[in-house]
Specification:
Blueprint: H1 2-29, H2 33-52, H3 60-85, H4 93-116, H5 123-149, H6 155-174, H7 184-187, H8 198-226, H9 234-256, H10 262-272, H11 289-307, H12 309-319, H13 321-326, H14 331-357, H15 368-378, H16 390-409, H17 414-438
Length: about 450
């Protein structure tokens, strides 16, 4: 009996030592436990689907396509973080994406050619069309933001109306027609063999990104010394840098492992007078342009949220609107600007989605509002306002797209896919509620 008690006590002490070691590790590296949990869930989903699909999920081809499919949702999710942090919601992002995509499609496939007289291949064709789409998205965001901020109509009602209005407008523009084809340069924003930067440029981007990580860690340590803030241990800084660089270079390696299709390689070889060797010609896709666009948006939005006065105002308003107003923050103007940013991001996503399809369709952006909101919430953005991260929302978008892509790969019917996505959203909100009660 005594031996049993002693062994139990020893086991409890060992377990406590392990927990304290894990706690010390998390404290030293300052890693977000919620973010770690989401990464763990993502890995479980990837491995599970890979096993169930017979080894089809974790392949360079599928992962490359997954990154492209995630780009448009991830871009909008970065803006949804600001919206939800301020205790608002935007149900219209999918419809805004649809109407802006239709305007850009009509502009380059019909209006600028027939009315203005520009020819196919003219570099101004896609530039004007893209600019018109961004301006339209900005205007829609400003219009909805004005009603919410200055006319004091709840965001849920305004954007629910926008969901119906802008979807109807997209249909009315062409009476339900699909507009195609789009400008060849515009199509590069959708990815594909020619919408990627190739192997060499991808490695250059990877090395530059690793250098940026090292600079960020060194600069952060320097700033902490300057203001006498606690410093992370050197080993923790090295660990974070190694893990980040390994993830970056691993992603580049996967992108460079996916070759062009044989038919396109043959066509490319004929056009450039290249002799195809006996074993075939391997030309890597590299990183897709829409993925680079999503990463660029993520960096800009992270800078806005963490390094600007506007970003601090957004979180202050979300934390306590009354206190923010009494502190002199123009809460109405900040709210309006948040919805303007959301409109611009929806326009960028519209360009990526329509370019990928090489067409503007009335189905563009359908139910994307659900994926975007789910991505933000799963990524740690609290519906109660005041907290959320851009990186978390982008990881949430990857998780949601992984679920959808995996279910398609497994041949799961569309209705069941919707059930799973809805259930995941509810569970994410429940976990957020539990987390907030414990903090």
């Amino acid at each position: 009996m005594t031996d049993t008690t002693s062994s139990t006590v020893a086991a409890d002490r060992a377990r406590a030592a392990e927990l304290s070691a894990a706690g010390r590790f998390l404290k030293a590296t300052e890693l977000d436990t919620r973010m770690l949990g989401m990464v763990g869930a993502l890995l479980v989903i990837w491995i599970g689907i890979h096993v169930l699909s017979g080894g089809l999920f974790l392949t360079p081809r599928n992962l490359w396509n997954l990154s492209v499919q995630t780009s448009s949702v991830a871009i909008m999710a970065t803006g949804m973080v600001l919206v939800i942090v301020m205790r608002n919601i935007d149900l219209s992002v999918g419809s805004v994406e649809g109407v802006v995509g239709m305007i850009m499609g009509v502009a380059q496939a019909e209006f600028l050619i027939r009315v203005i007289g520009l020819e196919l291949g003219n570099p101004w064709l896609w530039i004007i069309a893209l600019a018109a789409g961004v301006v339209l998205g900005l205007a829609i965001g400003a219009f909805q933001g004005f009603i919410i901020a200055y006319m004091e109509v709840p965001a849920f009602i305004v954007t629910l109306g926008g969901l119906l209005v802008w979807r109807g407008m997209a249909w009315m523009i062409t009476s339900g027609r699909t507009v195609a084809p789009l400008d060849a340069t515009f199509q590069l924003m959708g990815g594909g063999p020619r919408g990627s930067i190739g192997a060499t440029a991808s490695w250059v981007v990877g090395v530059v990104a690793c250098a940026a990580v090292a600079f960020a860690l060194l600069n952060g340590r320097s700033q902490r010394k300057r203001f006498n803030f606690p410093l992370r241990p050197v080993w923790a800084e090295v660990f974070l840098g190694v893990v980040a660089c390994a993830a970056i270079l691993g992603a580049v390696s996967v992108a460079n492992s996916y070759p062009w299709p044989v038919g396109i390689v043959r066509q490319y070889a004929q056009q450039n007078g290249i002799t195809i060797p006996e074993g075939g010609l391997f030309i890597a896709h590299g990183i897709a342009i829409p993925v680079l666009m999503a990463v660029a948006v993520g960096i800009v939005m992270t800078f806005i949220t963490r390094r600007t006065r506007f970003g601090r105002y957004v979180f202050a308003i979300g934390g306590n609107p009354e206190a923010a107003s009494l502190a002199g923050i123009n809460t109405r103007w900040v709210t309006m600007k948040v919805f303007m940013i959301m409109g611009v991001l929806a326009s960028i996503s519209a360009a990526i989605s329509s370019a990928r399809l090489n067409a503007a369709t009335n189905a563009l952006g359908t139910l994307d509002e659900l994926l975007v909101i789910a991505a933000a919430v799963i990524g740690g953005t609290s519906l109660a306002g005041g907290s959320g991260t851009v990186l978390g929302a982008m990881l949430g978008a990857l998780l949601m797209q992984s679920l959808q892509s995996g279910m398609v790969l497994l041949g799961i019917d569309s209705p069941l896919q919707s059930i799973v996505v809805g259930a995941v959203l509810v569970v994410a909100v429940w976990l957020d509620t539990v987390y907030r009660k414990r903090v």
